[in-house]
Amino acid sequence: MTELTCVESRPGLPRWWLRIMAVLYDPFLWTGEIAGMRRRRRKLLTQAYGRVVEIGAGTGLNIAHYPDGVDELVLTEPEAGMRRKLVRRLDRNGRPAVISGTGAERLPLANESVDTVVSTLVLCTVEDPERVLREIARVLRPNGQLLFIEHVRADWRPLALYQDLLARFWRAFAGGCMCNRPTVDLMRACGFDVDATGAIWSGMPTIVYPLVVGRATR
């Protein structure tokens, strides 16, 4: 059974384009999913335990990969079109969860009340990543973990310059996604210990290379 809590729209982006993105999101990612992303999601989420909160759950592409033994699953997603698809995917998978429309900048959770936070392809889209990371740190228990798959600014300078050149266009097209965000550096600056490996997001445009996959702790 799912429970809908307070909802809000993602600020600063045209609602009509967000509605279109909710329809196109899964088809756009389909090649990347079958080329390796689905396997990465499955492997990463085997580490989830206890009370789990996924920020920016989108259309629910992680749903099928959560272990059956998690105590509680809370999914946040600020965009209404995405939430509708998320509810349908939960129903298809028979997965109980709480859905919140609150953005990751202010999670409706008590301090130190969460064992695992999950972020897959989310920290590139939020307006204030440092604020989101501080919020994640707030809700995590002292031994809690942040599991993540994110695409980041490239270390290879020609690709990084390409990302910088097209960043504004990509952000408008991809619903606020910043293709050149140094997310792992931001995690460390916000006090997280990060254990991550690099990968290539096969089947996707080079502007979102490379990926980092890993685990961060407070």
Description:
Residues 53-148 form the Methyltransferase type domain. This is Class I SAM-dependent methyltransferase. The chain is built from 5 helices and 8 strands; from the N terminus they run βαββαββαβααββ. 37% of the residues lie in helices and 24% in strands. It has a single domain (2-217), classed as 3-Layer(aba) Sandwich (Rossmann fold). It is globular, with a radius of gyration of 16 Å. It has an 8-stranded mixed sheet with strand order 1-4-3-2-5-6-8-7, with helices on both faces. The model is unreliable at 4-11 (pLDDT under 50). Strand 3 (72-76), helix 2 and strand 4 form a beta-alpha-beta unit.
Brief characterization of the structure:
With 218 residues, the protein is α/β, with parallel strands linked by helices. It has helices at 15-45, 80-93, 129-139, 157-173, 183-189; strands at 2-7, 51-54, 72-76, 97-101, 114-120, 140-151, 193-199, 211-217.
List keywords for this structure.
218 residues; alpha/beta; Rossmann fold; 8-stranded mixed beta sheet; 8 strands; 37% helix; globular; Class I SAM-dependent methyltransferase; transferase
Q: Which SSEs are present, and which pair or pack?
A:
Blueprint: E1 2-7, H1 15-45, E2 51-54, E3 72-76, H2 80-93, E4 97-101, E5 114-120, H3 129-139, E6 140-151, H4 157-173, H5 183-189, E7 193-199, E8 211-217
Parallel strand pairs: 1-4, 2-3, 2-5, 3-4, 5-6
Antiparallel strand pairs: 6-8, 7-8
Helix pairs in contact: 1-2
